């Protein structure tokens, strides 16, 4: 019924700390203007930014056995990322499961379906990004998996990828690209003061306006 990856990959805590405080927009820029999940998966209540290691969960529509089974593998610093196959006929998880996640140190939950018990979830305080809310309850029959690659909001998420969330949305950083993304963000920060000294226009725009691609009449 449920498939568990017994040794789920995770990035180290030190690497996660290096992403802390970086806006999702800057990360998306370093990913070539991509990396964000579907905009309809949004923050359901005001909460601070988060960064963590993805614990991936696949569950069929209208079922939450796999999200509960994930408690066997979840660790402090994880972001539980749940694929419900975009199910919006009812909630997939509620405040009972959020409380259990919170007790194990989960820093965020992202799913492509719905949740319920918003007052209780908000009191628990874990940031949650979902398509919306419904009082309807799910079943617990399975099947499902924890630790396999999933697709959420148009983005493939692998176990151990870095998940970053803030007011703009959620961005997924493939674990294997983390160092390159950080280097790109650092390079952009170093270049920013020099670019500002060149004038009021961005440097790339000044170059473009002087090029043959602009015809002045």
Task: Describe this structure as you would to a colleague.
The chain is built from seven helices and 14 strands. By secondary structure, the protein is an alpha/beta fold. The protein has a single domain, classed as Glucose Oxidase, domain 1 (3-Layer(bba) Sandwich), CATH 3.50.30. α2 (24-30) crosses α6 (178-197) and α4 packs parallel to α5. The radius of gyration is 20 Å and the shape is elongated. The N and C termini lie far apart (69 Å).
What is the element layout, followed by pairings?
Layout: E1 2-4, H1 13-19, H2 24-30, E2 42-43, E3 50-58, H3 65-69, E4 78-83, E5 91-93, H4 95-103, E6 108-111, E7 114-115, H5 118-124, E8 128-130, E9 132-133, E10 144-146, E11 150-152, E12 155-157, E13 162-166, E14 169-173, H6 178-197, H7 203-209
Parallel strand pairs: 1-10, 3-4, 4-6, 5-7, 6-8, 7-9
Antiparallel strand pairs: 2-8, 3-10, 3-13, 11-12, 13-14
Helix pairs in contact: 2-6, 4-5
Total number of helices:
7
- The total of beta strands comes to 14
Q: How far do the termini sit from each other?
A: 69 Å
Query: How many domains would you count in the coordinates?
Result: 1
Task: Please describe the biggest sheet, giving its number of strands, its sense, and whether it closes into a barrel.
Answer: 9 strands, mixed
- Percent strand equals 15-25%
Looking at the structure, the CATH topology is: Glucose Oxidase, domain 1
Broad shape: elongated
Uncertain regions spanning at least 5 consecutive residues: none
What's the CATH H-level homologous superfamily?
A: Ribonuclease E inhibitor RraA/RraA-like
CATH class: Alpha Beta
Q: What is the mean pLDDT?
A: 94
